[in-house]
Amino acid sequence: NARSGGIPPVYRDFARFARIMRAPIWLRPEAALGFMIEGPLLEWHGNRIIPQPRGRVKSNDNVYRVRRGVPVCYTFDSLKELSAGEIMSVVVVIGGQWGDEGKGKVIDLLAEKADYVVRFSGGNNAGHTVVNDYGQFRLHLVPSGIFNPGTACIIGNGVAVDPASLIEEMDVLEKGGVSVQRLYISDRAHVIMPYHLLQDGLEEACRGTGALGTTRKGVGPAFSDKASRTGVRMVDLLDSNSLRERLAIVLEFKNRLLKGVYGASPLDLELVCEEYYKYGQRLVPHIRDTIAL
User: Fold this and answer.
1) In angstroms, rounded to a whole number, what is the distance separating the alpha carbons of residues 118 and 172?
2) Exactly one of 13, 100, 239, 268 is catalytic; which is it?
3) Nearest-CA neighbor of 185 among 164, 168, 160?
4) Which is catalytic among the residues 61, 108, 128, 133?
5) DSSP 8-class letter at 238
6) Which residues are CB-neighbours of 269 under 8 A, at least 6 positions away?
7) How far apart, in whole angstroms, are the C-alpha atoms of residue 160 and residue 247?
8) Looking only at Cα atoms, what is the longest distance across the chain?
9) Distance from C-alpha of 170 to C-alpha of 168, rounded to nearest angstrom
10) 260 in helix, strand or coil?
């Protein structure tokens, strides 16, 4: 909370904060913030952030610490030591550099001491590459805690799920000897539908030189439908009649959009229902009310 605990005003500007930090964040229960950085340590002095020489933090006593609520700085080297102790009830790993910070590797390590690893947002438009004793895996939806036998992995309700991509990912893991029995998917998570994929690509093409550069995975359109209350959720895939009723309304509008605005071919209701109901049947052992977990 930027209004309490003496957090300097500079941290209220997260964009500037992210550029300075260039690493994941730890949120600690005692309301202090910890920064894991591969580069120099950062210490707060008055109204300036001063880089300190990079070094291994051997204990909490050696961490640059100021009063309660003001940032506490760690080096990336201290991660193993910190993860070995019972110092946190909840650890939040957030990338502040638009991806490629090493979040997946961090989570894979932290999962050794975690009961749950939760993916709370995003979609399969990005991913983590994890290398461990099982081999090398590129994960896009499955939390990288899946490699720890004692950890339950949750795809939360804030995630946009492409079921085809998820099933492919699960198959690769199982082929590599990794069990996915501890993978749970929120029944409230929204589904990336085939018209989302089409819409994402067509919108990008229409932008021409002003294209956003999306991965065309349909994540943006899926979140737009979520906000407009026209999305399909994972629970809808479990009942063919419910799915058909839901899609009959949504697909009528989407087909008008695809054909009238973009000049694309409309989608067939029955084919879409059949395909996505099959996905639901494959994933039904994993879909549940994750809030209850």
Assistant:
1) 20
2) 100
3) 160
4) 128
5) G
6) 244, 247, 248, 251
7) 17
8) 65
9) 5
10) helix
> CA Rg, the chain, in Å?
22
> Of the candidates 112, 99, 191, 97, which has an alpha carbon nearest to the alpha carbon of residue 144?
112
Structure tokens given for 118: 């939760």
User: Residue 5 in contact with residue 70, Cβ under 8 Å?
Assistant: yes
pLDDT per residue, tens digit, the chain (293 aa), is 333 344 344 333 333 343 444 433 333 323 233 333 333 344 434 444 444 444 433 333 333 332 233 333 433 444 444 444 444 577 788 777 766 777 777 777 777 778 898 988 889 987 778 888 888 998 999 998 898 888 999 999 999 999 999 999 999 999 999 999 999 999 999 999 999 999 999 988 888 888 887 888 999 999 999 999 999 999 999 999 999 999 999 999 999 999 999 999 999 999 999 999 999 999 999 999 998 88
Whether 286 is catalytic is no
Asked whether 8 and 38 are in contact (CB, 8 A), the reply is: no
Q: How far is CA 74 from CA 31, 85, 109, 121, in A?
A: 16, 15, 16, 26
Query: Helix, strand, or coil here: 102?
Result: coil
Q: CA–CA distance from 266 to each of 27, 163, 176 (Å)?
A: 47, 21, 39
Is residue 225 annotated as part of the catalytic site, yes or no?
no
CA count, 13 A, side-chain hemisphere, 100: 1
